Amino acid sequence: MSDASYRDAIFSTPLDRVARFSFDEKVVACFPDMIRRSVPGYGQILGMLGLIAARHLRHGARVYDLGCSLGASALTLAGRLPPDAFRYTGVDLSPAMVARARETLAAECPDHVMEVLEGDIRTLDYAPAGMVVLNFTLQFLAPEDRDAVIERLFQTLEPGGVLVLSEKVKAADEQENAWLVERYHDFKRANGYSEMEISQKRTALENVLVPDTLAGHHERLARAGFSRAHTWFQFLNFASLIAFKDA
């Protein structure tokens, strides 16, 4: 199958009614292309996960990857750390994502201890972990559910554990936020998306992806008990934070 078969063209034709965005089989088929062309800095964030784990993860500890999609974080960790360095548990709500991730990890990381679960991160029965990765997942949860999820993850982490939280964010200042949104649309245009695709995707995500401010994220992490948190990466209105639990 050619690379063109995997190109994100979901919103490339006019739709009478734009359905709410969901991570179904159509999205799974083109997800690597979609996220590469839609999320500024995604590759850099992935690339740092292995370095962060090498620095902060206790040897042999569990890593949770919540909203794991196709398992890209697992591949990054396996490329940096030996098989005995960690146990990986990916979790996703999409059956199509889970099936593809299991296939990929079994083929690409046969020596590492990895599992992918289909489940809801709000109700999952967590085991103690040394690191939790939450890449562009919290933004898809209802805002009223987010505090409880972060509180549960704080309790899940071992002393000295870290949470990596990556999200689309909004600026508190309306003028700044409008500028960031327009430059993000320029980014998508430069990556080959048409005006129709940008418009229809935005409609599909309305009330599905609801971003917080960076300050809101930091405040939530502090309320949950994290002793410190840093914004270590930002590209336009996409950012990644790391939060630390005291040892």
Task: Please supply descriptive tags for the structure shown above.
alpha/beta; 7-stranded mixed beta sheet; 43% helix; Carboxy-S-adenosyl-L-methionine synthase; Methyltransf_25; SAM-dependent_MTases_sf; S-adenosyl-L-methionine; EC 2.1.3.-
Give average pLDDT, whole number: 88
Distance between the termini: 49 Å
Q: Structural class of the helices, strands and pairings?
A: alpha/beta
In N-to-C order, the SSE pattern is HHEHEHEEHEHHHEE
Shape: globular
Domain Methyltransferase: 63-161
Family: Belongs to the class I-like SAM-binding methyltransferase superfamily. Cx-SAM synthase family.
Function: Catalyzes the conversion of S-adenosyl-L-methionine (SAM) to carboxy-S-adenosyl-L-methionine (Cx-SAM).
Pfam family, one: Methyltransf_25
Could you give a quick summary of the protein structure above?
This protein has 247 residues and is α/β, with parallel strands linked by helices.
Structure overview:
This protein is of the alpha/beta class. Helices cover 43% and strands 21% of the residues. It has helices at 25-38, 42-56, 72-80, 95-108, 143-156, 174-190, 195-205, 214-224, and strands spanning 61-66, 86-92, 113-118, 129-135, 157-168, 228-235, 238-244. A 7-stranded mixed beta sheet has the order 3-2-1-4-5-7-6, sandwiched between helices. Helix 2 crosses helix 3 (72-80) and helix 5 (143-156) crosses helix 8 (214-224). It starts with 24 loop residues before the first helix and ends with a strand. The relative contact order is 0.16.
